[in-house]
Amino acid sequence: MKWFVGLGNPGREYKDTRHNVGFMALDRFAEEHGLAFKESKCKGWLAEGNVAGHKVYLLKPATYMNLSGEAVRAFQQFYKASLDDMIVIYDDLDTDIGRLRLRYQGSAGGHNGIKSIIQHAGTQTFNRIRIGISRPHPAGRSVVDYVLGEFNKEERKLLPEVLDKTGEAMRFALDNPFDQTMAKFNS
Question: Which residues does the annotation mark as catalytic?
Fold first, then answer.
């Protein structure tokens, strides 16, 4: 079993924001593989099914970004799931727009969703696919306003390709160790 956690905020007002790129990646993956999200006991929306012969769960926390760890913990407890089988997908300011950066451990780096997962999981060691959103320009612009803002026209052109690449990394990770996935998809 593999479980993918896409980070974002619930609600129509956040749907197309930079901070919701984790939700976007899971929505695209679910659509490609015929999986449907339903409300779950895990404080979020859950899609489940078989992909390439593997049992797969997709979790979108409904707790808002800053409390994402609550949904991760609820899923982990309910399904007796191992953190070794989890991959978290989220936005990253320190990675250029349109690029991916995969890691298996590290600090939250200022990302409140990751901070919450670290707090609730009790470890900084878990697999991550970070989708680049770049830093706001000009420098000094509010980071909160930036991540909660929608992608601009040029950025939107890059989204389909990076979401496709994220889906490829997710599928590759089903059959391969995460260190091999990192070697193949770190750009």
Answer: 19
Contacts of 26 by beta carbon, 8 Å cutoff, 6+ apart: 4, 6, 47, 58, 59, 60, 89
Query: Sheet harboring 44-51: ordered strands across?
Result: 38-39, 44-51, 54-61, 2-6, 86-92, 125-132, 100-105
Range of the domain at 181: 2-185
pLDDT digits (tens, 9 = 90+) for 12-57: 999 999 999 999 999 999 999 999 999 999 999 999 999 999 999 9
Give the integer Cα–Cα distance in Å for 154 and 94: 18
Residue 140 has pLDDT above 80, yes or no: no
Structural domains in the chain (count): 1
Cα 92 from chain centroid? 10
SS3 124: coil
Does pTM top 0.85 for this prediction? yes
Helix (H) / strand (E) containing 165: helix 153-175
Strand partners, 39: 45
Q: Report the CATH number at residue 41.
A: 3.40.50.1470
